[in-house]
Amino acid sequence: MQELFYDISKIQNMVQFESMLKAVHDKSESGESQVDDTAINDKDLVFIKKILKTAADKVFGVLEPYSRTVHNLFEKEPYEFDVTYETLPGHIVYRVVWPEKFPVTSAVLVDGAIENYLISSCKAEFRLKKGLNNQSERSESETNYSNLLSFINRRSGLKRTYKLF
Amino acid sequence: MSYSKAASKITFSYLIADLFAEVEKETAAIAKNRSGDNGPLTDRILLTEDEKPFFDKYVVDIKDLIFQKIVNLTFGISAPVTQDATKIEFIVVDKAGYQEASVIAVDRAIFKSFVNGILAQWLLKIELPDLAKIYLLQESQALIDVTNHSIELRKPSI
Predict the structure, then answer these.
(1) Residue A114: which of A62, A76, A41, A40 has the closest Cα?
(2) Measured between alpha carbons, how far is A60 from A3 in angstroms, rounded to an integer?
(3) A6-30, pLDDT tens digit by residue?
């Protein structure tokens, strides 16, 4: 079994940080940054956590086929949101049992793709809810989701049992 | 004009006396170069102690304008703006994700907002609208600088 865990406050910080980077260049005619209108402020972090839950649920939808035996074999929940992982509070935890031919190195890619998807999905959803153009964030989110699916479906040692000619 | 840091907070502090001295100095410089039919306009232009009630009113107005620019940095702070007879303070959250230069830039921009804003209002009051326009523009720019430089202070440390 592999455990994948993500610090909710770290994801919130990354989402907020990236929104600030964008706000620096998003200026009015007078040259004033539109930071109050477009960036994620501290008061928005509660909302970010709410949309993060939705994104985390969607990730579990992808991982779920590999989590079905976790409960019976290890007596643990396959997916938990905002729990203490070991001693670390406020975490998202996924537990999976990878198939036999799933390459170990791909697990690292899956881990990164999940984090990237959670961050980009929050950015896209936040801008959508604020009525802002979220085309680039939506595109980034879809790419990350696509990457996640691609990495999860990788298998090693598969050989053709037929000839090409 | 100064700032201090303690307990995850940054306090920007401005002495009323410093603001008054700066405005007085500026009005003296303006008065020196302007004269009417009966000589220099010092008495009309120079902001002196007997006009302090006007000054106090302008300070309050501009303090509110500045606070609007940094209000989103004060989330969770119970008294983010304080004013007494000697000083005005703005308290913001210290998120530790900034360069020191940004704090200095915000500090200076707030000070400039006060000085230029007070001067603009005073010059309007004494009917020197052309000069007032210049200081109004400078006040606007200083307020924009408060917003733009304070973005660095809003960034969380990652």
Answers:
(1) A62
(2) 13
(3) 999 999 999 999 998 888 888 888 8
- Write the pLDDT tens digit of every residue in B27-84: 988 888 777 667 777 778 888 888 888 899 999 999 999 999 999 899 889 999 999 9
Cβ within 8 Å, pair B147-A32 = yes
pLDDT-above-70 percentage for chain B: 97
Partner-chain residue, chosen from A14, A24, A41, that has the shortest CB–CB distance to B72: A41
Asked if B53 has any chain A CB less than 8 Å from its own CB, the reply is no
B132: left (phi over 0), alpha (psi -120 to 50) or beta: alpha
Let me know if B129 is exposed, middle or buried by CB neighbors in 10 A (0-12, 13-18, 19+). exposed
Average pLDDT, chain A: 91
Of B76, B97, B154, the CB nearest to A35: B154
* E-assigned strand segments in chain B: 2-6, 9-15, 35-36, 39-40, 81-83, 87-93
**Averaged pLDDT, A97-112:** 92
